[in-house]
Design goal:
heterodimer, A: 289 residues, alpha+beta, B: five-stranded antiparallel beta sheet, four-stranded antiparallel beta sheet
Chain lengths: 289, 465
Amino acid sequence: MRISNINFMQHRKTALLLSLVCVVASLGLIFFKGLNLGIDFTGGNVVQAEFAQPTAIEDIRQVLNSVGQGGSVIQSYSERGVIIRISANEEEARKQAVNALRTKFPGIQIIRLEKVGPVVGAELRQEAFIALILALAGILAYITVRFQFRFAVVSVAALLHDAVITLGIFSITGMEISSSFIAAILTIVGYSLNDTIVVLDRIRENWKNLRREGIVDLLNNSINQTISRTINTSVTTLLPVVALYVWGGEVLRSFSFALLVGILVGTYSSIYVASGLLAEWWMKSPQKG
Amino acid sequence: MLRRDRWRLGLVAIVVVAALVTVFPISGKINLGLDLKGGAHIVLQAKESEDSKVTEDSIERLLAVLRNRVDQYGVAEPVIQREGRDRVIVDLPGIQDPDAALELIGKTAELEFRSVIEATAAVPPGPQRPNYDSDEEFQRAETRWNEARSQIEAAREALAKRSEEITGSRVSRDDEGRYYLLGPVLVSGKDLVDAKTRYDNLGRPVVGLTFSSEGAKLFDRATADNVGRQIAIVLDGVVISAPVVQERITGGNAQISGRFSAAEASRLSIMLRAGALPIAVEVIENRSVGPSLGEDSINSGIRAGLIGASLVFLFMLLYYRTLGIAADAALAVAILLVFAGLISLKATLTLPGIAGIVLTIGMAVDGNVLIYERMREETRAGKTPLAAIDAGFKKALTTILDANITTLIAAAVLFYFGSGPVRGFAVTLSIGIVASVFCNVLVTRALLQYFIGGRGAAGSLLPRS
């Protein structure tokens, strides 16, 4: 690849504004439209079943209606396979619904059952929250020690940006958030940081030229020096994630979708959010060094 | 190759051989999670009530009874363990019928024999629209049915009032909606020594009971006192059947006949043999995956992994040419090390864990990309190939470490807080990170040195494009 010389920082204000809009919009979506939390978080009953013949969702709903579970969410993932989230929480309701389905569709196979009590769901929500806070704190501390506090703040800002936008996209699409989503978000956080740190690392290395180049050129040079790596790594990470999304099976679909979104947003944010913020911050209050 | 660099090649060779020995033959060496091999994961919470308190002792006895039941049911390699103060986790691999398993472990199985003082009528089955000619007729039938129901409700209240006057009595219902006013306990499950599934002369499954000598005495007296009257057999507060005593029964044998299937009868006898749970439990989590879905998940995970890995291998080859071979070799070693790590740590591979491995494949070459881009820069700056390789590795090393340690922090938090599958993901991700850093730094470098040593020059390795 030729040595690129793109003036990335020229558009930093537009990019930061765009990011701000996306983050605010995502937060708005999360608060007002909400997230489609799976039973891991809310508690409830899920049944995954495969029918002997292709079966219309309408017929399934009719059967569920007859046992008073008409409000269930039915989602088909193949001609014969459905995932049913039963509207009532009790074990009894689930048994009734399954029995009714068994009677109506004799060849049905129940291949997965999940029941989570509301207490467990609440505990998981709390644990997920604590886990995210702890991970962020640990990362912040590490980068502060290895780099400087400013670098730590902008990289945490970049990864929060990625996490919030990923949540926002899940809110728009209405995809379900299960416990493996926490794993996906923390992986995105890890990836986003990985990406950001490579850029910041180069900035730190070039820091001695600050007086001569000025912050904007220094950032531009650093990004240009690392851009081919940024692109290559995004490609090599995206390839398996796309494979997971397409061939990884139904259970992993929302997980791999989160990773897909997170990697794309994470690549962008390591350049524009982290470096852009660093530039603005530096110009507002330069520090000796 | 310089003599001082030989140690690297040696170390890599030792690690690879050790990993190969650990991994192959691979069949049966990796612990598969329940989501991959199929099975039921059930979490029970002990419920405190006035009669039974949650104590160390009651939880220990609960575990013992559950183990006994599961063993008798015949599950290979079950896991029954305590979690926290008042929870119990039961993992049953390979279960075909999760509902049956749930019945088996979630029921208290407290058996009582009580005399029947009075009983209401049974609730008739509700009217079905297709059985009636017109909506009007159907509605009249529904009204009649509702009346019958409310009469029985009223009768239940009357029974409840009378029950307050008789000590030790209680009101229970059966599965036809009939209510009984029952006298004090005559004989209980404590006095049982055995319970077996038998068949009566009509071929219906029944549960045959054998009492201890103490129980036999109690049962003898109970039947003698109640000839011509009903004795109710009550399980967990629900009347299973209430036969009329034909004659005094001596000898300590009895049988329960309900309307159950052979499988239900066998479950009931297991529960009665193992004894009642010392404390009531509630199922707060139940995850069951059929063996076929588990197999599907493994297959699609492997397919996604193979396709993803091939794409990454191809990309590195096309983009970096000769250097790509070293990167691909390092990636292959990294994948091998991940499996070796999983096996030697006895970690459990879950579905998100497979996703973690697939993801690692993409992230593992990041180190190589960093190093190679550095080497290109150094070459452009005019360094000789050998010096460029040295500088590339040296300068990229801190970046690789910084970038991976932060991911490791996130993985560690996941491991500490996550449960089940999420934990499996954290483990594979962590192993993947460590393995890929090792491969980036040592395996690639050893290979490059070998290449250079073999050719005497590395000019073709680093095209100055």
